[in-house]
């Protein structure tokens, strides 16, 4: 009896309180996953980056306009030979109250470059030969090889600066409370449920941040995430499923913040026939109707790619080559015949059932390739298995959904470079073309933008010719917010996953 | 003890609705209950006696339909009275005692609670008053330590104690009518005696009219003032008890009395009830089907000998309680001469069934020897034991449970042949055995549920004889049967012993049956054999006090019974 | 009393059995995890980050994953026996994760059982008392329907209707009691109803059949013969007798819920044990998976033990067996 | 076991019709489907009912009716195969657990307890995780999951049968264990097993759909009902009927099987029949 009355009471109460329960100045952020780690130097995914960028700042970061924005460094210079970077630090404070000094920067980079460490971008940053600290507010990086791309890697969330003292104590303690110089301090992490951040009053940007606290709540299921936003359980969500984009855009009560960032495509295991043959890969590029994928797997949202996945405005983008391929079944058949497969073949396509856009792309590709006689078996394990298979090149070809890490054209290295590590997550395994390797090396070291652009033009020609990766489309990457949430910016292009940066500008109105 | 008429059943007819048709259960039955008198209603199973009693309480099941007549109690027709009127009568003016006392009590209330509740249902005494009355009642039904009983749950009492609690509740409100439906059937014979005596005394005290329903003529003889006999839904006759037994009017009653084992000399064929050519009920003693002289009983070699057989069980009441040891069979030694019958008697739980299983090693004995013609079964390995079992057969109490319901009679009877001889000549053997036990050939293709209890017991016996065993163990083989059927089966066993040279270990709780069939007797109590010897000697001159108690408790019928004559 | 000693012994032996049971489960899970494809280190470092082989090796060593499986097993088992479930791959104690999830799962399970009992028991009683009549048919059909509709369909419909269309209740998540009591219970309602509905159906069926069984017992007839009213018979005697199996089935269902909330937790983003476990499996967070499954199994066993004890207390036939 | 009485109940008859229909469609589904269930139509995604597509199209423009018709087969196959596996192994374990010697029985039943304390869907989660999901592996996993229930039912029925005298009679006649099992025990525990089988079929269908819903079931693009429901859940606002059709089919099937199981149980349980 008692219980019944209690329940009735609760029901009555909630009718009164269902709209106004959220405290003022708090943002509830529905994250697509729980970060597996907040260790600054590793890159476990978008969710972790979003939280990291609320807590930390680097010397530079990508700003809301997609350009490099000076952060802890007030300004910086790159020498003519692209071998020396000089940073001038501003007066900023860490969350523990200590000032950000050159020593902290030096300690941070030493930590990243530690050969036994697990820094995600150690390879890319390992051209840093020495970190010099002429004074407390100046940091000089000396490079072993010239690189203009380095600044892009320094802007990543994995290159943020942490206090030297904190590092000394907590380098190997994954559970230490994170300390950074960003807009929010770490509050509490209820494992399996949420991470709470609180406003950092001594943040170096005047008047920022606007929010008192942020609750990152983990919503693994995309439909639940969308429902949570619709019903007001959260104020903002990431990874809006394509099928819901339209409805959330139309509202009422919700808005969509979109950008074309990631691309979808195919990566091929080039060790074996038939995918070792460029003709086959090209045939596939001709055979797949991009609109079929966009209309079915992505609910009509997305932009087709008929060439390479280089965003307009990025170095390497070529107006002339952007429609290199076309939907041309005849041509595809010719190429197949030329490669020695006039009747097609059987193959295994690896994707993952854990992410609908991967699975749906695979389903659409299966249907499209059937038209030129390629009969596919879909391999749709969970994400961990998919990644482990990718890491062992245990597939014929695979659905690729990714983006460039940085806005500098050097991102292409990860996708096309051969060299000594031929099996990587994002390349086509065993693809190793000396010409492409040479062009990528040259591009990185070329300081003059015009000359550099030329190098990448040559790269585009060669990459299209060999087509180790076939691109289908730009995926629209969306955040959706409730009405009244302002100031959150979806960073353009490849930088979309670093949009957590803009949390410093985000406001919630009642 | 003349009283006034209290409850009158007049011309009552009841039918059952079953799948669209009406099946008549009782036809034009009339009975009158008088105050201070015990009216016995006797009949075999299916005779409609229980339905009659339920009708008298207005408790007929929903599918029963009264097609005529009435049940009058103080000017009200109970069959047409409203629910609340009936409720006021039940328990207060008319009360009832059922067959299974343990099941008739709510298991999760203490006996005290239940008696108090029964009192408070009809009398405004207050809880304290009702409790006092309950204690007085328990005293009255001669329960030891009434306060303890008040706080006990039904499962903590014995069957006899439960029945006393039921009786206490039945007499709680000094009812005018008490209906007792087989009140002692589930009880041991010694307890039965006590309960019947109690019932009789209480009745004398409160002067109620008692309707005592039973299948047991002995019980009737013991306590009833008048007797009504019912057969297949028809009242056969009604008379004073003495008259029924000395000069029964109806042929059925006569036949029924005649088929009681205690009415015939031991080790003879019993008269059976049959309908003659004109459809009249007659009691006949038919000659044995096989003409062969009865074997010499004495002087035969020993077929089975048990030496120091012992079996101890660990009982665990619930999965959460510790076990305790129980000696089910305690150092039992016995010998049975070939072609003779040893009767093993004892009350429920004395270990006689365990003993029967031990002999066949269906249960492994802890110690002791089982010698059949000198071969010790106790030492045999599994395969040899399996072989040894072809010389022994077991006939169980419950003819409904001992036949696999999913097999035809042919497969059932041929089972031993299949097991030991690979099915050789099975059809011929089945035909011969069916004939031997008096079943038609067509029976072979049918399933057990198509037969009556007596017929099933014949099938069981046929199966037991399939391989011509030396020893047949009958474990309460006739206990579940009506007297008339029991007579047939006993006759059959008798005939077969002669025909097949069988040796019987005949286990029963029924003294008169054992007396009738046995050459020698063993009396078992708490796992031990307390007395054994030739049948006559044990029955006529019991040495053990327990044997004497047992014999005293047996309801005696008529004057032809030798034991009764002496008593 | 000697009974108490026996009782204690029985409990003790049950606990020993439970521990052996848990050990077998732990071993099973342990071996299962090691034949599963997928690399925990890769998931931890982030597959997109192209970790260098040295980084992978370093992490592997740091996590102790480079040691032979057997020694990992022994080490883990040794810890588990001292109540230490080890460290999750991200460095946090497994116990901390589980502590967070277990109470949420328990809360949801209890709420669901409450809902289910409040709906199921009265329905079952009503059906039994009207056996063979229209109401019985209707209630039985509804109960069968309740068992036949998958929880995720029901849950989706409830979210769509009550939450998204009408806006009466939140669609998902969990709010700590300390933050807002009202919100806490608001968020409990939909998952509890979703989970409880199917259970209500089976509780109703169980209630009905055990009521019917008791109604057919001899003592009910003798109560009638004693002139007791039907209402008193049903509410005082039949229901109390029937309560024993009903309470048992409710208890067993509670036990089953320990691992049976997966779909509902996923649907409502309820941060309980199942959500934790699913995430841990997809991240190949072995220690966490082991800890979570072990906890679920332990809870299951514990609840079953409690049900047995409760059963013993409820039924005088078992409670007061003479020694 | 007279079943004619069963057929007189309209609900049971209807259930039998539904089940019969489903089995027939499972066999001939691909031939009566109006469209290729895998054919994408990028210009007709998420359409409502029309004359061309009676039940509309899904997110790939595939015909929902055709997918429903073809999707029966994996559903039925998984349900039947897993139930068969569970029934065979579970019954064997149960009989040995009940009839076998005490030690063996003890270990078997404790093993069954362990399996029971291992939450079903989690077991599936783990198993499907390292096995490729497919009709066969799914059937095996689900089959294993339901073994303990069968073992419990078989064991308790066996114990009940063992308490009857005809089993003792078999022993008394010197019958071998195999004969006792196959002649005396098995035929007499069939009734509760049949009931358990129908309930398991229903439960297996639900579990398969739940796993498919979690993305662990039948591999796309091959349709199965659970997987369709799981996908359709995301399109509830755009194409509400998409989720309705497979849900209806699934609920109706499970309902029919459950009703049949209930009826069988009532019918086979003499206590309920005669009360």
UniProtKB/TrEMBL annotation, chain A:
Signal peptide: 1-23
Keywords: Signal, Transport
Location (main, coarse): periplasm
Pfam families reported in the protein's UniProt record: SBP_bac_5 (PF00496)
Gene Ontology MF: a single term: peptide transmembrane transporter activity
Any one GO cellular component localisation term in the record: ATP-binding cassette (ABC) transporter complex
Entries under InterPro entries matching the protein: Peptide/Ni-bd (IPR030678), SBP_5 (IPR039424), SBP_5_dom (IPR000914)
CDD domains recorded: PBP2_NikA_DppA_OppA_like_11 (cd08516)
Solute-binding protein family domain boundaries: 67-420
Subcellular location: Periplasm
Biological process per Gene Ontology, one example term: peptide transport
SUPFAM superfamilies: Periplasmic binding protein-like II
Protein family (similarity comment): Belongs to the bacterial solute-binding protein 5 family.
The protein, known as: Glutathione transport system substrate-binding protein
Protein's organism: Amaricoccus macauensis
Classification lineage: Bacteria, Pseudomonadati, Pseudomonadota, Alphaproteobacteria, Rhodobacterales
TrEMBL record, chain B:
Residues of the ABC transporter domain: 7-257, 304-551
Listed CDD domains: ABC_NikE_OppD_transporters (cd03257)
PROSITE patterns (UniProt xref): ABC_TRANSPORTER_1 (PS00211), ABC_TRANSPORTER_2 (PS50893)
UniProt entry keywords in alphabetical sequence: ATP-binding, Nucleotide-binding, Transport
Cellular localisation: Cell inner membrane
Topology within the bilayer: Peripheral membrane protein
Main location: membrane
A Pfam match: ABC_tran
GO cellular component terms, A-Z: plasma membrane
Database matches in SUPFAM superfamilies: P-loop containing nucleoside triphosphate hydrolases (SSF52540)
GO terms classed as biological process: peptide transport; transmembrane transport
Domain of life: Bacteria
GO MF entry, a single one: ATP binding
Family the UniProt entry places it in: Belongs to the ABC transporter superfamily.
Official protein name in the record: Peptide/nickel transport system ATP-binding protein
Annotated source species: Amaricoccus macauensis
UniProtKB/TrEMBL annotation, chain C:
Protein name according to UniProt: Peptide/nickel transport system permease protein
Pfam families to which the protein is assigned, alphabetical: BPD_transp_1, BPD_transp_1_N
Positions of the ABC transmembrane type-1 domain: 102-311
Main location: membrane
Transmembrane segments: 12-36, 108-130, 142-168, 188-207, 242-268, 288-314
Membrane topology, as annotated: Multi-pass membrane protein
SUPFAM superfamilies: MetI-like
Source taxon at top rank: Bacteria
Keyword Cytoplasm: no
Assigned GO CC terms: plasma membrane
Family the UniProt entry places it in: Belongs to the binding-protein-dependent transport system permease family.
PANTHER family: DIPEPTIDE TRANSPORT SYSTEM PERMEASE PROTEIN DPPB-RELATED
UniProt subcellular location: Cell membrane
GO biological-process terms attached to the record: transmembrane transport
Automatic annotation (TrEMBL), chain D:
Family: Belongs to the binding-protein-dependent transport system permease family.
Organism: Amaricoccus macauensis
GO CC term (a single one): plasma membrane
GO terms for biological process, alphabetical: transmembrane transport
Membrane topology summary: Multi-pass membrane protein
ABC transmembrane type-1 domain mapped to chain residues: 72-261
Signal peptide boundaries: none
Key word Cell membrane present: yes
Protein name: Peptide/nickel transport system permease protein
Ranges that cross the membrane: 12-33, 76-99, 111-130, 136-154, 185-207, 243-264
UniProt cross-references to CDD domains, sorted A to Z: TM_PBP2 (cd06261)
Annotated InterPro entries: BP-dependent_transpt_permease, MetI-like, MetI-like_sf, OppC_N
Top-level lineage group: Bacteria
Highest classification ranks of the organism: Bacteria, Pseudomonadati, Pseudomonadota, Alphaproteobacteria, Rhodobacterales
Subcellular location: Cell membrane
Protein keywords: Cell membrane, Membrane, Transmembrane, Transmembrane helix, Transport
């Amino acid at each position: 009896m008692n219980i019944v009355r209690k329940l009735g009471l609760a029901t009555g109460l909630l009718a009164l309180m269902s709209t106004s329960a959220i405290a003022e100045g708090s943002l509830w952020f529905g994250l697509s996953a729980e970060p597996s780690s907040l260790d600054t130097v590793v890159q476990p995914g978008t969710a972790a980056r979003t939280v990291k960028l609320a807590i930390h700042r680097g010397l530079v970061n990508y700003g809301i306009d997609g350009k490099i924005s000076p952060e802890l460094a007030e300004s910086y210079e790159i020498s003519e030979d692209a071998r020396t970077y000089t940073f001038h630090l501003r007066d900023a404070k860490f969350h523990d109250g200590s000032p950000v000094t050159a020593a902290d920067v030096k300690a941070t980079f030493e930590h990243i470059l530690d050969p036994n460490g697990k820094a995600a971008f150690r390879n890319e940053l390992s051209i840093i030969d020495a970190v010099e600290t002429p004074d407390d507010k100046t940091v000089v990086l000396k490079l072993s090889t010239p690189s203009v791309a380095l600044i892009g890697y320094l802007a990543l969330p994995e290159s943020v600066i942490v206090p030297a003292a904190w590092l000394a104590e907590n380098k190997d303690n994954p559970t230490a409370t994170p300390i950074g110089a960003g807009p929010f301090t770490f509050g509490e992490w209820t494992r399996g449920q949420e991470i709470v951040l609180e406003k950092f009053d001594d943040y170096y940007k005047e008047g920022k941040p606007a929010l008192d606290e942020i609750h990152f709540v983990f919503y693994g299921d995309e439909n639940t995430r969308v429902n949570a936003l619709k019903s007001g359980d959260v104020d903002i969500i990431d990874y809006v499923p394509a099928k819901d984009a339209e409805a959330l855009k139309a509202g009422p009560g919700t808005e969509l913040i979109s950008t074309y960032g990631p691309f979808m495509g195919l990566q091929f295991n080039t060790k074996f026939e038939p995918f070792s043959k460029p003709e086959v890969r090209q045939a596939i590029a001709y055979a797949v109707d991009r609109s079929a994928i966009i209309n079915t797997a992505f609910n009509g949202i997305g932009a087709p790619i008929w060439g390479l996945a280089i965003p307009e405005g990025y170095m390497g983008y070529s107006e002339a080559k952007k429609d290199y391929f076309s939907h041309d079944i005849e041509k595809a058949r010719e190429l197949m015949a030329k490669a020695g497969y006039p009747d097609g073949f059987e193959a295994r396509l690896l994707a993952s059932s854990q992410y609908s856009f991967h699975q749906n792309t695979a389903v659409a590709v299966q249907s499209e390739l059937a038209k030129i006689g390629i009969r596919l078996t879909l391999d749709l394990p969970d994400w961990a298995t998919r990644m482990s298979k990718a890491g062992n090149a245990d597939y014929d070809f695979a659905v690729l959904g990714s983006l460039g890490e940085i806005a500098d054209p050097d991102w292409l290295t990860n996708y096309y470079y051969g060299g000594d590590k031929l099996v990587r997550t994002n390349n086509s395994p065993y693809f190793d073309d000396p010409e492409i390797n040479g062009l990528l090396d040259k591009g990185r070291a070329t300081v003059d933008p015009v000359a550099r652009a030329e190098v990448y033009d040559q790269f585009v020609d060669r990459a299209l010719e060999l087509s180790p990766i076939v691109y289908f489309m730009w995926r629209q990457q969306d955040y959706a917010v409730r009405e009244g949430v302002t100031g959150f910016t979806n960073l353009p292009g490849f930088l979309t996953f670093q949009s957590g940066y803009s949390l410093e500008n985000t406001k919630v109105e009642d | 003890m003349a009283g006034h008429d209290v409850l009158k059943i007049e011309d009552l007819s009841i039918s059952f609705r079953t799948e669209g048709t009406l099946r008549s259960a009782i036809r034009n039955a009339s009975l009158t209950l008088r105050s201070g008198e015990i009216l016995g209603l006797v009949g075999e199973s299916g005779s409609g006696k229980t339905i009659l009693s339920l009708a008298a309480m207005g408790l007929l099941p929903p599918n029963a339909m009264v097609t005529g007549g009435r049940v009058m109690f103080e000017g009200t027709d109970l069959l047409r009275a409203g629910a609340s009127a009936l409720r006021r009568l039940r328990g207060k003016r008319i009360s009832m005692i059922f067959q299974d006392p343990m099941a008739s009590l709510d298991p999760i209330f203490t006996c005290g609670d239940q008696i108090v509740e029964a009192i408070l249902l009809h009398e405004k005494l207050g809880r304290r008053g009702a409790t006092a009355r309950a204690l007085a009642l328990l005293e009255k039904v001669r329960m030891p330590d009434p306060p303890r009983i008040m706080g006990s749950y039904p499962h903590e009492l014995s069957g006899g104690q439960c029945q006393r609690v039921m009786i206490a509740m039945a007499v709680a409100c000094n009812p005018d009518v008490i209906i007792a439906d087989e009140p002692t059937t589930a009880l041991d014979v010694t307890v039965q005696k006590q309960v019947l005596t109690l019932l009789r005394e209480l009745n004398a005290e409160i002067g109620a009219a008692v309707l005592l329903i039973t299948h047991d003529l002995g019980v009737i003889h013991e306590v009833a003032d008048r007797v009504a006999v019912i057969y297949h839904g028809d009242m056969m006759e009604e008379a004073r008890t003495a008259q029924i037994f000395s000069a029964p009017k109806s042929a059925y009653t006569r036949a029924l009395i005649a088929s009681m084992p205690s009415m015939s000399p031991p080790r003879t064929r019993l008269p059976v009830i049959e309908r003659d050519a004109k459809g009249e009920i007659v009691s006949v003693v038919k000659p044995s089907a096989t003409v062969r002289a009865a074997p010499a009983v004495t002087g035969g070699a020993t077929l089975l000998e048990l030496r120091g057989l012992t079996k101890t069980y660990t009982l665990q009441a619930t999965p959460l309680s510790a076990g305790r040891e129980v000696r089910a069979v305690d150092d039992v030694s016995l010998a049975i001469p070939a072609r003779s019958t040893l009767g093993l008697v004892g009350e429920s739980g004395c270990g006689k069934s365990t003993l029967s299983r031990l002999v066949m090693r269906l249960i492994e004995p802890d110690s002791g020897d089982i010698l059949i013609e000198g071969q010790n079964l106790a030492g045999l390995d599994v395969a040899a034991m399996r072989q040894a079992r072809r010389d022994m057969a077991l006939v169980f109490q419950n003819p409904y449970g001992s036949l696999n319901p999913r097999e035809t009679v042919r497969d059932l009877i041929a089972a031993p042949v299949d097991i030991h001889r690979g099915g050789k000549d099975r059809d011929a053997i089945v035909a011969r055995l069916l004939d031997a036990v008096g079943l038609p050939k067509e029976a072979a293709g049918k399933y057990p549920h198509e037969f009556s209890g007596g017929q099933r017991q014949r099938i069981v016996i046929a199966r037991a004889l399939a391989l011509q065993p030396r020893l047949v163990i009958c474990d309460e083989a006739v206990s579940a049967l009506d007297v008339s059927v029991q007579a047939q089966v006993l006759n059959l066993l008798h005939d077969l012993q002669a025909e097949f040279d069988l040796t019987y270990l005949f286990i029963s709780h029924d003294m008169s049956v054992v007396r009738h069939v046995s050459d020698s007797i063993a009396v078992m109590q708490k796992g031990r054999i307390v007395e054994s010897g030739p049948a006559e000697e044990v029955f006529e001159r019991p040495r053990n006090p327990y044997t004497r108690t047992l014999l005293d408790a047996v309801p005696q019928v008529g004057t032809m019974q030798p034991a009764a004559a002496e008593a | 009393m000697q009974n108490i000693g026996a009782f204690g012994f029985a409990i003790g032996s049950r606990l020993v059995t439970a521990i052996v049971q848990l050990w077998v489960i732990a071993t099973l899970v342990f071996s299962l995890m090691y034949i599963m494809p997928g690399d925990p280190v890769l998931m931890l470092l982030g597959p997109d980050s192209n970790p260098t082989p040295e980084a992978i090796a370093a992490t592997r060593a740091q996590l102790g994953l480079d040691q032979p499986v057997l020694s990992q097993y022994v080490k883990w088992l040794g810890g588990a026996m001292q109540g230490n479930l080890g460290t999750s791959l991200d460095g946090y104690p497994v116990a901390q994760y589980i502590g967070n999830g277990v109470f949420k799962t328990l809360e949801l399970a209890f709420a669901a059982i409450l809902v289910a009992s409040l709906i199921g028991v009265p329905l079952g009683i009503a059906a039994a008392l009207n056996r063979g009549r229209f109401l019985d048919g209707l209630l039985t059909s509804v109960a069968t329907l309740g068992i036949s509709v998958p929880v995720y369909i029901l849950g989706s419909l409830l979210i769509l209707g009550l939450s998204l269309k009408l806006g009466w209740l939140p669609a998902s998540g969990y709010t700590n009691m300390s933050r807002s009591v009202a919100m806490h219970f608001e968020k409990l309602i939909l998952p509890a109803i979703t989970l409880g509905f199917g259970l209500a159906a089976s509780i109703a069926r169980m209630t009905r059949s055990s009521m019917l069984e008791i109604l057919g017992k001899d003592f009910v007839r003798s109560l009638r013969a004693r002139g007791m009213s039907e209402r008193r018979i049903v509410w005082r005697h039949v229901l109390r007798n029937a309560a024993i199996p009903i309470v048992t089935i409710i208890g067993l269902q509670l036990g089953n819920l320990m691992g049976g909330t997966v779909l509902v937790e996923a649907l409502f983003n309820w941060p309980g044990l199942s959500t934790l476990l699913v995430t841990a499996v997809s991240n190949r967070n072995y220690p966490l998976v082991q800890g979570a499954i072990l906890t679920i199994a332990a809870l299951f066993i514990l609840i079953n033990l409690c049900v047995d004890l409760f059963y013993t207390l409820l039924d005088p036939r078992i409670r007061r067996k003479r020694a | 076991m007279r079943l004619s009485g069963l057929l007189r109940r309209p609900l049971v008859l209807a259930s039998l019709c539904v089940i019969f229909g489903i089995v027939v469609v499972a066999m001939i589904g691909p031939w009566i489907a109006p469209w290729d269930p895998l054919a994408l139509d990028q210009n007709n995604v998420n359409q409502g009912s029309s004359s061309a597509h009676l039940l509309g199209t899904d997110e790939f423009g595939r015909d929902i009716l055709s997918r429903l018709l073809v999707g029966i087969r994996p559903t039925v196959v998984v349900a039947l195969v897993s139930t068969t596996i569970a029934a065979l192994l579970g019954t064997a374990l149960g009989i040995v657990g009940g009839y076998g010697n005490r030690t063996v029985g003890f270990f078997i039943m404790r093993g069954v307890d362990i399996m029971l304390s291992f939450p079903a869907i989690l077991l599936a989660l783990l198993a499907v995780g390292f096995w490729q999901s497919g009709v066969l592996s799914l059937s095996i996993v689900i089959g294993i999951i339901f073994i303990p229930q069968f073992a419990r039912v078989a064991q308790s029925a066996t114990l009940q049968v063992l308490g009857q005298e005809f089993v003792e009679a078999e022993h008394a006649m010197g019958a071998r264990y195999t004969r006792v099992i196959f002649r005396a025990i098995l035929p007499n525990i069939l009734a509760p097993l049949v009931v358990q089988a129908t309930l398991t079929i229903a439960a297996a269908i639900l579990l398969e759909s739940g796993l498919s819903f979690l993305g662990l079931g039948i591999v796309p693009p091959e349709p199965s009902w659970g997987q369709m429901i799981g996908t359709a859940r995301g399109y509830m606002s755009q194409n509400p009927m998409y989720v309705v059709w497979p849900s209806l089919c699934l609920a109706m099937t499970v309902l029919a099987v459950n009703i049949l199981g209930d009826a069988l149980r009532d019918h086979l349980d003499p206590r309920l029949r005669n009360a």
